[in-house]
Amino acid sequence: MIELGRKNTLEILRDTSVGLFLGDGEGQDILLPNKYVPTEYEIGGSIEVFCYLDYDERPIATTLEPYIMLGEFRLLQVAEVNEFGAFMEWGLEKHLLVPFREQRDKMKQGQWYVVHCYLDQKSGRLVASNKIDKFLSNENLQLREWDEVDLVVTRQTDLGWEVIVNEKHKGLVYFNEVFKSINIGDVIPGCIKTIRKDNKLDISLQPLGSRVLEPAANKIYEVIKQNGGFLPLHDKSDPEEIRDTMQMSKKTFKKGLGTLYKARKIKLEDDGVSLIDD
Questions:
Q1: Left (φ > 0), alpha (ψ -120 to 50) or beta: where does 38 sit?
Q2: CA distance 266 to 105
Q3: Rounded to whole angstroms, what are the CA distances from 98 to 54, 69, 107, 124, 204?
Q4: Are 225 and 175 in contact (CB under 8 A)?
Q5: What is the side-by-side strand order in the sheet with 96-99?
Q6: Which pairs from 222-227 meet CB under 8 Å and 24+ separation?
Q7: What's the count of helices (H) and strands (E) in the chain, helices before strands?
Q8: Which residues contact 149 (CB under 8 A, 6 or more apart)?
Q9: What pTM was computed for the model?
Q10: Burial class (CB in 10 A: 0-12, 13-18, 19+), 246
Q11: Domains, the chain, with CATH or none
Q12: Cα distance between residue 198 and residue 220, in whole Å
């Protein structure tokens, strides 16, 4: 089955004057226009393409890489606004429509918005919505604390950064859990820190518990090596200085130092830490 809005790996069926016809093995075929045909291909071989509707509402394939696919949330820029709605730049020739009814606030040309891509059941077209909350739910969570998740940063609140979790749920990264620069639209990894009784999700941008030890120790070790074998930080250093230099909390830094010290990789000095030669 050829899925609109997603990447499909299809068989190259035949070469024509307008391009390659690709098939799914179930009787469906789709055109890959000449401008997207690779220089080398083989009839009977396979190719990965993205499928959507062209200007004439016909299914079409492309080898261009879209900025967003069906079911995803991404930060896109408005290329044009007309009587039908806002049209987003998403890496393809035909822009992605956000109808006026799907705009939380009236969108403006040149501005950036986090949108959700979905298939409109009436028209069969891929469209987008800026009313992202209606596509998210925390009712049926199939997550556990410490699970690694994919995040999309959506907005800044008084408490921290709201994020979309695995393209399905809402979560929050508190400001005191952020040790690096993040921005709206960033797609980053994270972990489930806490699942509250009301199913609200607290998110950490770092591995949790014992999992943080090895990554933190490894990062400290690499930074010391890059600094010629000495790092002017120690367990009494200012937390802000540690955050700015290492992008981690003082607590995590101290645990990482402890791991390296026990492994006899470092020597603790009055003004910092240095590597012990192997």
A1: beta
A2: 55
A3: 16, 14, 9, 14, 32
A4: no
A5: 96-99, 85-89, 73-82, 112-119, 126-129
A6: 224/266, 224/273, 224/274, 224/275, 225/275
A7: 3, 18
A8: 143, 165, 166, 171, 189, 190, 191, 192, 203
A9: 0.77
A10: buried
A11: 7-62 (2.40.50.140), 73-133 (2.40.50.140), 148-205 (2.40.50.140), 210-275 (1.10.10.10)
A12: 37
Residue with tokens 């990062």: 219
Q: Count of residues for the chain? A: 278
| Dist CA 5 CA 153 (whole Å) | 22
* Ordered per-residue pLDDT tens for the chain, 278 residues: 999 999 999 999 999 999 999 999 999 999 999 999 999 999 999 999 999 999 999 999 999 999 999 999 999 999 999 999 999 999 999 999 999 999 999 999 999 999 999 999 888 899 999 999 999 999 989 998 888 899 999 999 999 999 999 999 999 999 987 878 899 999 999 989 899 999 999 998 865 544 555 678 888 888 898 898 999 998 888 989 988 888 888 888 888 888 888 778 888 888 899 988 75
DSSP E strands, 16-72: 19-23, 29-33, 46-53, 59-62
Q: What span, in angstroms and rounded, lies between the C-alpha atoms of 239 and 105? A: 40
